[in-house]
Structures are given as C-alpha cells and as structure tokens.
Hints:
By secondary structure, the chain is mainly α. It has one domain (5-86): 434 Repressor (Amino-terminal Domain), CATH 1.10.260. It has five helices and no strands. Helix 1 (5-12) packs across helix 2 (16-23) and helix 1 packs across helix 3. The model has no long low-confidence stretch (mean pLDDT 87).
Amino acid sequence: MRPTTKDLAEAAGVSLATVDRVLNDRPNVSNRSRERVQQAITRIGYVRNIAAVNLAKNRTYAFRFLFPTAGDQYLSELINQVHQVST
C-alpha cells in the first residue's frame, strides 16, 4: 500500500498541516521540520498522487491528438492506450 500524508506526518514526527505546508511549498515551516519531512519522504517512499491533488483542487486537464491518417493500426492502439491511462 502506498504511504499517505498521514504516514508521512507520523514518520517525520510533525502534524498533517506541516506536511501540507511542505508539500505545497508554503511558508511558516521551520527549516528543521521541512528537512524532517523531506527525509521522511525519501525514507518511506512517499510519492505524491498528482491526480488526487488536482481532483481535490477541482482541476481538470484536457488534451487532444491530431493524427494525419485514420485506420493506422499503430495509431489506433496508441489512442486506445492513451485513453485507458487518462481515464
């Protein structure tokens, strides 16, 4: 299971609010606490889920591909794979 921000806060010995401030590069965090959070990120293997962050902030992103020809099997498969990954 992927480590959560709660796991990160516990590993760093700081509050969830401090973890949030560090992850979002906000002020009012001591250098010591910022360093503890950064070390905990490495130690527990925390990876920020950008899709979840954008969902929480009500952000969506759209993109389009324009291909010169239809019916190309490679491009059709590429389109299918991109669609599966993006939804």
